[in-house]
Design a protein that fits this description.
With 344 residues, the protein is of the alpha/beta class. The chain folds into three domains: 68 residues, OB fold (Dihydrolipoamide Acetyltransferase, E2P) (Beta Barrel), CATH 2.40.50.140; 159 residues, P-loop containing nucleotide triphosphate hydrolases (Rossmann fold); 82 residues, Probable gtpase engc, domain 3 (Ribonucleotide Reductase Protein R1, domain 1, Orthogonal Bundle). It has nine helices and 13 strands. It has a six-stranded mixed beta sheet with strand order 10-9-8-11-13-12, sandwiched between helices. Strands 3-2-1-4-5 form a five-stranded antiparallel beta sheet, with no helix packed on it. Strands 6-7 form a two-stranded antiparallel ribbon. Helix 2 packs across helix 6. The longest helix is centred in the last third of the chain and has 42 residues.
Amino acid sequence: MTQTLTIADLGWSAFYNSQLEIDEIGTVTPARVSSVHRTRIATFTENGPVDLALEAGLSTGEIAVGDWVLCDPDAARMIRRLDRQSTLQRGSDYVHGDRQLIASNVDTLFITTSCNADFNVARLERYLALAHDAEVTPVILLTKADHTDDPDSYITQARALGRNLEVIALDALHGDVSEALGPWIGKGQTVALAGSSGVGKTTLANALTGGHAATQGIREDDARGRHTTTGRSLHRLPTGGWLIDTPGMRGLGVADVAIGIAATFPEISEIEGNCHFRNCKHDGEPGCAVQAAVAADEVDPERLKRFKKLIREDAMATETIAQAHARGRKFGKIVKAATKKKGR
């Protein structure tokens, strides 16, 4: 990257500036994480790329691409991570209560799918729940519209998944992608690109960045692709924005995103409070306002089915996460007590 960048170009805002201590102003360097490796992180600063060793006691699993950190570039050392304005993460392990960071400090999530067998409304709803919960604007990008005789049906299905939901069909190989996505990729804006393997994310990333990363084909039987992007990374866009590219994700668990689920299914969540029973499961209980809306053709029964599935999964995962945190606190107290006893 040869051009000079200002801190504003990198996406710095008053939100991050307000977190600086008085003695840090002018003495530390803000840096934005561009990729995360096993023992270090790569970052962008006003003075160019800098590789940093992690803050003591911190693991790379706690750092996300897009994070802002304070560092001492001369010592190649990270000092601390700043609070995030947004955090995209997915449930990944219900046994241990883990969640996996996808990206941070993102303004828009480009949810990419294609007009073939990969198109799956249930998976799109999962992405939408994660975006809404993180207060990130979701935009659905439909690729490979030229591979179907009825692209409008895919557009209609996608638009039915949210109120005022932006759905854009793209020709990443021949169209002007930057012009089509202009409202979300301007100076200082950050977008994350997510979706399954084989839907054309690398082609889209190439079109946006002007890069030439190699692409892979897809299997004809199920439209699934091979992983081209193997790690998350932050890229400068010619439009002044930033793109976080992510590997293909086939499994997309939800965990502790109840608010996001409610925002993804507003036609259901907005009338739940009218049910006769406060803990109504919408499974045939008397006085269920949601089932009444289904009977009146105001709620799609398939949407309700998927809503209930996500709610159950989220509740189970959230409970597991809470239990894992409780076990961690209990173990910490035991270790502290044992250490204290040993020191007597």
